[in-house]
Design goal:
The structure is a homodimer. Chain A is an alpha/beta fold. Chain A is built from eleven helices and 18 strands. The longest helix of chain A has 19 residues. At the A-B interface, β4, β5, β6 and β7 of A face β4, β5, β6 and β7 of B.
Chain lengths: 321, 321
């Protein structure tokens, strides 16, 4: 039984390894070889915390387990700890015995960034050169770093409700040698790829802010009621997702489905595009939209990859359990 | 972060500690201070395994976490491992950080035995002297050992579909200095307390096999379709349970409820009896029946107790996580 603590993961895990793990598990999900379990998410009635479990089994990669944890909104203020806290537990699918316990905080950020990157790799135009960012929280820097690796972007444009917070994104873009510009929402018409990563309950990006041929990755909506983009944009776009069942209930597509603008049957699992069983982008004028809801199998996939790396590098702690 | 491996638990945990932990958490549940989360239970499509999570939060004891694991039916045949495999993970309810990982196999047996013992303590007649056992699997020996401590029993009578398997119970009874007798089902009329612990899908104990004044603890039914006792027995008895929602859906009461013999509102949480807010046994002629379905909070309660003992005795393994 291996322990990989949170503190060692930053030096162990790469964006490339996270990308490969997430791409593979999306493919396995679409092929029916990997399956997420029902999500448990509970308000504790203590510290205003939300806590739960996201589990799954990837029969292709033989990865079984869960991520447990949640959101403790007073952690930072009261204790100097980050508010999102999670831990991944892996089990031997042959026996049911635990095999690994892995810090899940950084991995969650990396797997979420990897998901939008996988969507850009498979759905953005090859000639995409302008990357748009909506949102400037902690997770936005992860999304930006990962997205920048998928095309030879020549400019990053970004919008946030509070523009002063955009400096964290400016630093990331400039580190990558890419010019950065703060723009109004209308300025997003210049973008070839747009990543939205907010916790909003009302749309900021409207259909009129998006040009034909754009790829949009909506990464912020994971709960009933949240919304990042105008629902008519989904009617105008070809919609892809990590998991259709989540997309239509807690993802960005929930609103367009409720309004009858699209149907679940019109939403394509990104894994099917990866597998080549369903078409991805078919024209340079088409808007593609990836609804990234976040699934437990992503967490298990990156955790399994990090355990392999930790063992190989002699960093994993072995415990006789 | 503490690790308490399966191998050290037999020497650490006592039936008394398990009894106290389960009694306290039943009381907290009934008082509304502790709550089980929705259960996840999935067929993996691999090794014929069932796998899932039982989580909960005890706000009274400040215990948060889950038991993860399940049933791997080929473990023993193929690998010499026990078929039920589970692990308990505890979290700090103030921060969401993991605090302990505990082997759950023996604890599951102890907490299940403790549940029927708690029901006997609170619901059996004080003058109960004959203990009846239905079922003779591995878990039956745990139920018997724990039950024997609750009254000065003078005889154990037992029935199993295959009578040859009763020897394991005979050994336990004789170790405790109590005479043991294998009986036909009709012989159960002599029992003052009956514990059923089978995995049957059809009743063995019929209403006609039970005398007035008996306390019955039905501990085997935890799934839709399973059944240990004739449903009319529940109509005749006063019914108690660990958790009403489970009792009427996956517990022994599912059949009597479906047949209209009892209603959920007629079933009393055992914790309310412990708390003194609802009556338990009110006459020597009354049949009391405890429907023990098994809840995650029981697992967390005994795991938390064992972690405290392991730390106090210097046996817990500390890992910087």
């Amino acid at each position: 039984m291996w322990i990989v603590p949170e503190r060692v993961i930053a030096d162990l895990m790469t964006r490339e390894a996270a990308f490969d793990a997430v791409e593979q598990v999306f493919a396995a999900m679409a092929a029916g070889a990997a399956r997420n379990f029902p999500v448990v998410r509970e308000a504790l009635g203590h510290e205003d915390a939300l806590y739960g479990f996201k589990g799954g089994f990837d029969g292709a990669g033989q990865v079984l387990g869960l991520k447990a944890g949640g959101y403790w909104p007073h952690n930072m203020d009261r204790r100097g700890l980050i508010n999102h806290q999670s831990t991944v537990f892996l089990f031997d699918p042959d026996t049911g015995q635990p095999t690994a316990m892995v810090g899940g905080n950084l991995l969650t950020a990396l797997r979420t960034a990897a998901a939008s990157s996988v969507s850009i790799r498979h759905l953005a135009r090859p000639d995409a050169r302008v990357l748009g960012m909506i949102g400037a929280g902690h997770q936005a820097t992860f999304q930006l770093r990962a997205a920048l690796e998928q095309r030879p972007f020549e400019k990053v444009i970004a919008w946030n409700r509070s523009a002063t917070r955009l400096d964290s994104l400016r630093v990331v873009a400039e580190e990558a040698g890419v010019p950065f510009e703060s723009v109004p929402l209308e300025g997003m018409r210049e973008a070839d790829v747009i990543v939205t990563i907010t916790s909003a309950f009302a749309p900021s990006l409207l259909a009129d802010h998006v040009s034909d041929g754009t790829h949009i990755a909506c990464m912020g909506t994971d709960t009933v009621g949240k919304q990042e983009v105008e629902s008519s944009l989904l009617g105008r776009a070809t919609v892809f997702t990590d998991e259709v069942a989540q997309s239509v209930t807690i993802g960005e597509a929930q609103h367009a489905v409720a309004e009858g603008l699209i149907r679940a049957a019109n939403i394509t699992p990104l894994g099917a595009v990866i597998n080549g069983t369903r078409p991805g982008r078919v024209s340079d004028r088409q808007i593609t939209l990836f609804d990234g809801t976040g699934v437990g199998l992503q967490d298990l996939a990156v955790a399994s990859a990090v355990v392999d790396r930790a063992i190989a590098q002699g960093i994993a702690i072995e415990v006789e359990f």
